[in-house]
């Protein structure tokens, strides 16, 4: 008895020293990401919140101004407009998803050339956004651009895409869809390939129409992918900047293409209104966080229907 | 009966293939057009009707372009940033993923959730204080603000590797421990080889993301000789459009695309598989 | 059209936009006609073993010229100068970062519009004393240039000197002589400006369907000439009240817009987008186009003949345009303020450097005597160099935002101007509608400036 108790306590002791060692190793392994996170994310994040309550031009120390910057933001037509533009760009998300799913369905057949097509559609995804923006800026040129030349073939006189308040946003959306299509398609394709063929065959035997099979089997099966793409699409879309800055360096005709990040960037680094820019950046953070949280909440309530 | 289904299926395939081909042409046309423009003369780009294949390809555009701007140093800088960040960052991230997934540490899941939640903070919200921080230590206009944060790892990568590691049974590690292997040995000679495909895929994706980054570089880099390739070509675009030198701009952009295309072609399968994994595991 | 304008600023215009504002600040540092050594005759400072940093932006031609000035300075004082060069549009960020990081260069460029903020926050040094001590005769530099960097605590243009001009940038008006001769139209006079009506008539005559146009002006950079010559301005002299809602202002804007809307003597928006008017001018398709000294090196290579004239005039009968400048300032934290002031002086007024600069066709000399003498008489384009000089000395004005705390009130005017140029809004409607928004921003700026 005493011997076994002894043995137990040594094991415990050995175990606890072992555990302690393991803890130390684990801490060592995660230290860098945690430190990096504190220094490069949490620290700046807290400082942003502080700065958003100040007047700060980077020449002198920040001066506390309370809620002024936030009040200013809600009365600033350009802030509201750039926010509106940013949401407008998100129209591209459902368009892209529908196209991507259609493509994925088309490719999800046992047919030759599938790999080839997959790669072709994926090429824009790996291309650098800067280069692609430069390319499309040229492609949207009124007379000599690719887009209008193609339209010309079918007898349409295309507009001056990037110079017209009515077309500049659709033009940017079209480009974004082109750029992102391959990515969404690939994810859908992977999801479709995990749909058991037997399930579809059984449904077909039961007399389910193609539409019914799609709506009751395929669509729910790919729902997690849709969710993932919508969430990442909104997070990414809310930060659209590169194409705006390259293709419409002045924020577009009458500010019609300026995105919120572009406006923050202008205010901060062109007008040196760091405090005001920080306030807008914090608002952007809150918006992104809220939308994402809402999506997760909605997904938790409705998302699992039919997926399992 | 079986035959008609098969034929129907085959005709379907043909129709689908034709549609996909048309779609594929739409997808690839702008890029081909970019290459075509890069081989034209300055006036050739204004020819109507447009020429898809320039009558005399101006290969010298690709010679001229190197003298027209700091393209070479741009490539060098991009390479330094992307390689340093992804090589060191991948090691950091893999070790963290191993710890989060397989090592005992009270509260580790909480810490991990905390890190994950940080991904919801958009970069623009952080960029102003980060800029000031780096300005204070005199790092602006050096590559350091682009490199250093990446060395601390990439939470996204930690997340995926951690998911991936869940499929490695704990008993394997326990057995190794009983055999007296140290944690570094377990990590180095067991875990890494086991998840090598996942690491490689994440590495490539990350490399391309850093290579293609634009916002942080334009924030931090002012001197032409410090700029990364993406900033260099964006400046090309700004400077040469006024001179209507579109061929030069397009040549620079083509050059900027070539490295990622090469990587894509070489690692196509890994990239595509790992992206697919992203969706299903994410 | 505004996009188009801005595009020009962004692109080729790096030079215009940059050089122009840069020029305004010439504070009159140097002895125009003396060698650098003579300018410093008062109290020569030895710079043995000292290294000064100098943040520079600009093209290769400029760099070459300034390297000359630096060499002369180094030889004279024994100091070393380390040049930090940047792209024009990245300059401000880089400077800002250096200031934040306590690495403010000893000598750097200062934009006119930044004088107030930089002086008030103690970033730039009041160099009046150093200039005096060094025995520098600033009267040899354009008065406008020196005055642009004077600030008395509330107002720019008077008081202590916070910088010397790197250059002054007269934004003049050019015409395509060859086109006039071909069309058989009498050449415009360099002494008597056109009236608006005459100008529009000539522009119409020059316009030939889809191939050639009378003009193609960018509202952002050219409306000043119209407004000012019509007795209008963006704000009152104290820069407290925005005055774009006057009938004179509206009339000027409307006349400007009508060149396109009514007369169609400019490329349409679509045509301008395809190839902007700057490129069309260079291809000889445009009759009248603005010319700054920074354009001369490029325009000299054009295959048509061109020259300068005064801008057409509105109701006042007096031609007007803007005169930009960029300043050279000294950091308040420099340990070698006299030496730094001396370097600023060399950069502003070293004779050899100034000669190189005008010969390179990137600016007119900062030295009044050199400008009126050897520059005005020199070969090379434009023939009517006196127009540049008259602007610099006589009728050029600072851009409206150059003397306010922030330029946002002025930018506000341009952001929504497109509908006026498109004819969807009248000038009067627009001016009335934009005034309160501009006023609010100007009030904000004045409040921030503490005035």
Shape of chain C: globular
SS-based structural class of chain C? alpha/beta
Distance between the termini of chain C: 35 Å
Q: In DSSP terms, counting alpha (H) and pi (I) runs of 4 or more, how many helices of chain C?
A: 22
Strand order of the main beta sheet of chain A, please? 1-2
- Average residue-wise pLDDT of chain C: 85
Q: Considering residues with a beta carbon less than 8 A from a beta carbon on another chain, report the largest interface and each chain's count.
A: A-B, 95 and 97 residues
Oligomeric description of these chains: heterotrimer
Class based on secondary structure composition and strand pairing of chain A: mainly alpha
Note the run of SSEs of chain A as H and E: HEEHHHHHHHHHHHHH
Task: Kindly summarize this structure in a few lines.
The complex is a heterotrimer of chains A (308), B (282) and C (451). By secondary structure, chain A is mainly alpha-helical.
Task: Characterise the protein shown here.
- The complex is a heterotrimer of chains A (308), B (282) and C (451).
- By secondary structure, chain A is mainly alpha-helical.
- Chain A has helices at 2-51, 68-74, 77-89, 92-107, 114-126, 129-139, 146-153, 168-193, 197-205, 210-221, 223-237, 242-247, 260-269, 274-302, and strands spanning 54-55, 63-64.
- Helix content of chain A is 73%, strand content 1%.
- The mean pLDDT of chain A is 88.
- By secondary structure, chain B is mostly helical.
- Chain B is 76% helix and 0% strand.
- Chain B is flat, with a radius of gyration of 24 Å.
- The mean pLDDT of chain B is 87.
- Helix content of chain C is 45%, strand content 13%.
- The radius of gyration of chain C is 22 Å and the shape is globular.
- In chain C, 61% of the residues are buried.
- Chain C is built from 22 helices and 12 strands.
- In chain C, a hairpin with an 8-residue loop joins strand 4 and strand 5 (160-161).
- With 451 residues, chain C is an alpha/beta fold.
- The interface between A and B is large, with 95 and 97 residues.
- Chain B: InterPro entries: MetI-like, MetI-like_sf.
- Chain B: Belongs to the binding-protein-dependent transport system permease family.
- Chain B: It comes from Tessaracoccus flavescens.
- Chain B: It holds the Pfam family BPD_transp_1.
